[in-house]
């Protein structure tokens, strides 16, 4: 599954990326027609809370209208409706730009804080925006949330 989150669901979009789903997070001010057309063109499901988007002819095929407001509730609603596996391919995409991550080259290790280098075994790199990722405490906490959501919990 590939997703497109509108501007209201940026946090949900980042969690979908963390789970490994190809998720575009649209910027502010993009028109409704443009959102629908992009979803159709790229074969994405458009996730929104905007009821007006359901009025377009193509909407039944691409729009997922969420009723929830809080990100935690949106996660549970989306899981129930689409069967999202929150441990699909965790931390394989850049949380900033959605690009698939690659194994980092040795010269990129200088971007890891000195005290973390001792415990880091694998470093991942986004070839698009240059961000580096490693398995630290933050990622472990996020993995715990993803696992809880997969099990049907509230994370």
Describe the structure.
By secondary structure, the protein is of the alpha/beta class. The chain has helices at 10-19, 32-42, 59-62, 71-82, 114-117, 137-150, and strands at residues 2-5, 22-25, 45-48, 63-65, 102-103, 123-125, 132-134. It has a 4-stranded parallel sheet with strand order 2-1-3-4, with helices on both faces. Strands 5-6-7 form a 3-stranded antiparallel sheet, with no helix packed on it. Strand 6 and strand 7 (132-134) form a beta hairpin. The mean pLDDT is 91.
List keywords for this structure.
155 residues, alpha/beta, four-stranded parallel β-sheet, three-stranded antiparallel β-sheet, 6 helices, 7 strands, globular
Tell me the layout of helices and strands.
Blueprint: E1 2-5, H1 10-19, E2 22-25, H2 32-42, E3 45-48, H3 59-62, E4 63-65, H4 71-82, E5 102-103, H5 114-117, E6 123-125, E7 132-134, H6 137-150
Parallel strand pairs: 1-2, 1-3, 3-4
Antiparallel strand pairs: 5-6, 6-7
How would a textbook summarize the main sheet?
A: 4 strands, parallel
Q: Rounded to an integer, what's the Rg over CA atoms?
A: 17 Å
The end-to-end distance, rounded to whole angstroms, is: 22 Å
pLDDT < 50 runs, ≥5 residues: none
The figure for the number of domains is 2
Q: Can you give the helix content as a percent range?
A: 25-40%
> What is the count of helical runs?
6
The outline comes out as: globular
Share in β-strands: 5-15%
- Which strands sit side by side, in order, in the main sheet? 2-1-3-4
What is the H-and-E element order? Answer: EHEHEHEHEHEEH
Mean pLDDT: 91
**Which secondary-structure class do the elements indicate?**
alpha/beta
Count of strand segments: 7
């Amino acid at each position: 599954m590939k997703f497109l989150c509108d501007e209201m669901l940026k946090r949900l979009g980042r969690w979908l990326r963390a789970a490994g789903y190809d998720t575009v997070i649209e910027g502010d001010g993009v028109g409704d027609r443009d959102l629908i057309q992009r979803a159709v063109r790229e074969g994405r499901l458009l996730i929104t809370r905007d009821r007006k988007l359901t009025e377009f002819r193509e909407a039944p095929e691409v729009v997922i209208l969420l009723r929830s407001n809080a990100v935690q509730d949106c996660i549970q609603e989306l899981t129930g409706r689409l069967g999202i596996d929150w441990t699909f391919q965790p931390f394989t995409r850049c949380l900033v730009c959605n690009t698939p991550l690659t194994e980092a080259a040795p010269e990129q290790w200088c971007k890891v804080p000195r005290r973390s280098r001792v415990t880091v075994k694998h470093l991942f790199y986004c070839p698009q925006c240059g961000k580096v990722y490693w398995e630290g405490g933050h990622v472990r906490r996020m993995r715990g949330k993803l696992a809880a959501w997969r099990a049907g919990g509230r994370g």
